């Protein structure tokens, strides 16, 4: 399949995609801060450079884009028809890095929450449920939590 835009335009479009301080990330940080949670962001000394680190709770929050991290069975993830092998390899590497970082963090005693982009999109109009789930997890002792769209109903 041929791209619908020229190489220069595609390059410009791809360079505008941010890896940090994305809208979903800013939304979750804003909600946490409004509830009185204090945190650090993008700690380079931790595996995977977590999006949000809450040292008081020994908790880490990753906010994953459904496309970039290959969220299976998600309406927001569809493998592109062009350069399929490239995208399969790219997304697979991202998933491998996610798993590696998760194991290293768990072994170091951190608790990990992964919030998928689809869950954040679903909770934009009413973020109360997302925060209810997140604050309950932070108050508890569960080592892992994955929040996706199915939890936002």
Automatic annotation (TrEMBL):
Keywords: DNA damage, DNA repair, Endonuclease, Hydrolase, Nuclease. May nick specific sequences that contain T:G mispairs resulting from m5C-deamination. SUPFAM superfamilies: Restriction endonuclease-like. Coiled coil: none annotated. Transmembrane segments: none annotated. GO terms for biological process: mismatch repair. One of its GO terms (molecular function) is hydrolase activity. NCBIfam families: vsr. This is Very short patch repair endonuclease. Its EC number is 3.1.-.-. Belongs to the vsr family. It comes from the Bacteria.
């Amino acid at each position: 399949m041929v791209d619908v835009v020229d190489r220069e335009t595609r390059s410009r479009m791809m360079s505008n995609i941010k890896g940090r301080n994305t809208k979903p990330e800013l939304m979750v940080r804003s909600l946490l801060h409004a509830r009185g949670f204090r945190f650090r962001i993008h700690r380079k000394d931790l595996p995977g450079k977590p999006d949000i680190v809450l040292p008081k709770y020994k908790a880490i929050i990753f906010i994953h884009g459904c496309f970039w991290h290959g969220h299976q069975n998600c309406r927001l993830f569809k493998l592109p028809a062009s350069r399929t092998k490239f995208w399969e390899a790219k997304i697979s590497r991202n998933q491998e890095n996610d798993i590696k970082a998760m194991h290293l963090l768990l072994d170091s005693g951190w608790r990990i929450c992964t919030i998928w982009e689809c869950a954040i999109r679903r909770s934009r109009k009413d973020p109360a449920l997302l925060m209810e789930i997140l604050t309950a997890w932070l108050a508890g002792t569960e080592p892992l939590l994955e929040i996706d769209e199915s939890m936002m109903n």
